[in-house]
Predict the structure.
Amino acid sequence: MNLKDSINSDVKKAMHARDKEKIATLRLAMSEIRQIEIDGRKELNDTDVITVLVRMIKQRRDSIAQYLNGSRPDLAEKEQAEINIIQAYLPEQLTDAEIDTIIAQAITDTGAESMKDMGRVMGKLKDQLQGRADMGTVSDRVKAKLNGP
């Protein structure tokens, strides 16, 4: 069963369990996936679905920051609950040590020496880490390594 089918199946299970929060979040994810399929006129594979889910999580993290700045912890909690539901469909997250090892290997493979080479390093890392690590954090770590100690 592919990822899209799994999400669709879980929508039905959530409907039987009357889990309104999960139903709403998963329907939103399916809606986003279908919209991209319609716009692109192609069937999304698991990698594409992961990209959509990662984007949804990023949007929610941005919303959480805004809600907390606006003194709305209730809305921030709702967004965090949606993130938790969506993350269940992403691959297992890598540890900090694993991420550092992959970054070091990418820097070596690309021959990167300075910030000018960051684009090449991030391009190499994107496929390996997409959905398995927060790419914003990865970017910060690459910058730190390329800027030196």
